[in-house]
Structure formats: C-alpha cells, structure tokens
Amino acid sequence: MSTIPPSRVPPSFASPGTYELPESAQDEIERTTWYDFACVLLFLVGTFNIIDGIASIRDSKYVAHTVQFANLHAWGWFFLCWGILQVIAAFAAYRGMRWALILAIVTAFFNAIAHLSAVKSAPIWSSMIIALDVLVMYGLIVHGRPRRPEPS
C-alpha cells in the first residue's frame, strides 16, 4: 500500500491545519490584503481631508488659524478638493483601474507634503496623516498591481 506524501494530500483528506496553500496563492493573498488595506487607508485619509477642508472653510473653532502660508480658506478649499480626489482614487484603485493606482500614489505623496504645512499648528494630527500616507504609498507601490487587465 502506498502512502500519499503530505504535500499532495487533497484538502478534504488532510487533517485540520496540515494543508498549505501553494506559494503563488499565498503571495496573491498577501498582495491583495495589502492593496485593499492601502485603498481603505486612502479613502480614510481623503475623508479626513474633506472634513478638514469643510471645517476650514466654515471657520470651525477646532481649526487653528496658524498656517504656514496663504490663508485658512485657501487651504480649506485645497483640502476639500484634494480629499474628493483621494476618495475617487481610492474607489477606482480598489476596483483595479491602472490609472487610479498612479493617481492614488501621487495624491498620497502630495498629501504628505501638504500636511507638512500644518505641522506647526497640529503636530500630532499632521504626523498621523503623513504616516497614513506613507502606509498607503507602501501598499500601493509594493503590492499594487491591478487585479484585472483593463479592457482594450
């Protein structure tokens, strides 16, 4: 009687916890998980920018009126528009569009630079947004291959 090597045993016959996925499947799961995480983080950062933009335009009490240059309303409109662009890029990148992947990376990069202007007035908040942007860029650059080819 011959025995089947453990690596060749079908999942239905394997004892629980002994079946391993092929390496290509494990790589795809890791890539998809990081890619999805980066898209969700970009959506979150875009939503934060929309909220900050609206608060700045409406002269909310929690927004500090000490920006590096320009005025608070100009920054409010900038972050409102930038946040909308980031949310659109996050949805499209999640759907696997190649153009959105590039747009998402670019918006995360410039958002990190733009938040450097607010480090003086809100150092913890700006540092958190910059850290989230860096995670977004990592997830999209390292693991960001579109899931499906675009129709030609």
Labels describing this entry:
mainly alpha, 4 helices, 0% strand
Could you tell me the radius of gyration in angstroms? Answer: 22 Å
Give a short account of the largest sheet.
Answer: none
- By secondary-structure content and strand pairing, the structural class works out as mainly alpha
- Individual helix count: 4
Strand portion, in percent? under 5%
Shape, per Cα inertia axes: elongated
Count of strand segments: 0
Low-confidence stretches: none
What does this molecule look like?
The chain has 152 residues and is mostly helical. It has one domain. The chain has helices spanning 23-57, 72-94, 98-115, 123-143. Helix 1 (23-57) packs antiparallel against helix 2 (72-94). The radius of gyration is 22 Å and the shape is elongated.
Spell out the blueprint of helices and strands.
Blueprint: H1 23-57, H2 72-94, H3 98-115, H4 123-143
Helix pairs in contact: 1-2, 1-4, 2-3, 3-4
